[in-house]
Amino acid sequence: MAKPAKKKASKVSKTKVKEVEVEAPVEQPVAAEQGPEQDDAQLTIADLQAIAQVIDMAVRRGAFGASEARDVGIIYEKLAGFLQVISDQKKAAEGGQ
Known about the structure:
By secondary structure, this protein is mainly alpha-helical. The chain has 2 helices and no strands. It has a domain at 66-97. It has helices at residues 45-60, 66-95. The longest helix is centred in the last third of the chain and has 30 residues, at 66-95.
């Protein structure tokens, strides 16, 4: 009779997140005509900047394990790159006025 296959235990990463204060300029989302199907769930540039700051602080404080650090770093770099492009576009638009 065949032996039943052993199941591998899956690992669950538990991360404690400390409460932090983040100061970022508050921007209002661009007002657009909203239909009944649209909700108020919008992200502003200030929200994205705050997210980047939280990620940076969490990494510096050791909130992520070594196996998670690479993935967190990749997401942070994408976010920081996006914010830099937005900043460059804003500066170019202000210079063109």
